[in-house]
Amino acid sequence: MTRDADGDYIAGLRDRLGLPGIVDIHTHFMPDQVMRKVWQYFDAAGPLTAREWPIVYRDEEQVRLKTLRGFGVRTFTSLVYAHKPDMAAWLNEWTAYFAARTPDCLHTATFYPEHHVASYAEAAIEAGARIFKVHVQVGGFHPGDPLLTGVWGKLQEAGIPVLIHCGSGPAPGPFTGPEPIADLMKRFPRLRLIIAHMGAPEYSEFLDIAAAYDSVLFDTTMNFTDFFESADPFPATERGRLRDFADRILFGSDFPNIPYTYSHALYALERLELGDDWLRKVCHDNAARVFGLPVS
After folding, report:
1. Most exposed of 110, 138, 215, 231 (fewest Cβ within 10 Å)?
2. Plot region of 21 (φ>0 → left; ψ -120 to 50 → alpha; else → beta)
3. CA within 13 Å, CB half, 261
4. What is the rounded CA–CA span in Å between residue 181 and residue 165?
5. How many distinct helices (H) and strands (E) make up the chain?
């Protein structure tokens, strides 16, 4: 589908499913200078992307907001992540400001293992953060780092979801994969983790972790698209588990940093042929429940 055809397909899907809107829990809004650097990295096909990655929605911020809302996205996130010390607190200040001026964006925050992490993470919680983002691959740190013990504990007690990129796709890092997350969940068994990209490519292992811990969720970011299936295909043997976890899978797109149209991300879910009830849950109802959003 072309970008021009995005709206028609998405509107048709929403109407057929009777959705009041789409909840997209994996979208990126960042300070302009940070977003430009991210785009430059994708343009250069950096080692963490491992392939060419043309960005379809390379627009200025207000255009991107208009585009999402035009698709019928009623709630989204401003996922940011730190790749070095003394960055996360500043990003959290920006996301708090962005959420204050963008009421349909869930107040998002992040953290990084550093000596003052507990103070700024707690400040973000007190300021009303609804979701945290952690990127183990880009950040290059172990999620079980002792500096993060207090933060994980506070997030577990607060019940605030943490969307974590911890799978080894599109390129592995020294701390990616299921083992660090399995260890983390043993220490914090009520932690509300949302595994980004369904844990690609270690799909089966992360599904096993979710089977052991009811608080573990998934997002569908880039999964099942032609782009992802060509590199890290979801195993056919695990398709049945998508039904089993129907209440714990949430739609994510990675907008605007995707190399295909937004409609293709939704079509990729529809062509799984798991049924309209499954699609309604994934595209809206599950996230509405997790984040306490209106159901209509």
Report:
1. 231
2. left
3. 15
4. 11
5. 14, 9
Model pTM above 0.85: yes
Strand partners, 275: none
Q: How far apart are alpha carbons 256 and 258 in whole angstroms? A: 6
E strand or H helix at 77: strand 73-77
> Burial of 56 by CB count in 10 Å (0-12 exposed, 13-18 middle, 19+ buried)?
middle
**In sequence order, which residues have a C-beta less than 8 Å from that of residue 182 and are 6 or more positions away?**
209
DSSP 94-113: HHHHHHHH-TTEEPEEE--S
Which of 95, 81, 170, 182 lies closest to 130 in space, CA to CA?
A: 95
Q: What is the pLDDT of residues 188-241, one digit of tens each?
A: 999 999 999 999 999 999 999 999 999 999 999 999 999 999 999 999 999 999
Amino acid at 161: P
For 51-73, how does the pLDDT look when each residue is reduced to its tens digit (9 = 90+)?
Answer: 899 999 999 999 999 999 999 99
- DSSP category for residue 192: -
pLDDT surpassing 90 at residue 294: no
Q: Which two tokens stand for residue 15?
A: 């109407």
**Cα–Cα dist 52/40, whole Å:** 12
The residue type found at 283 is C
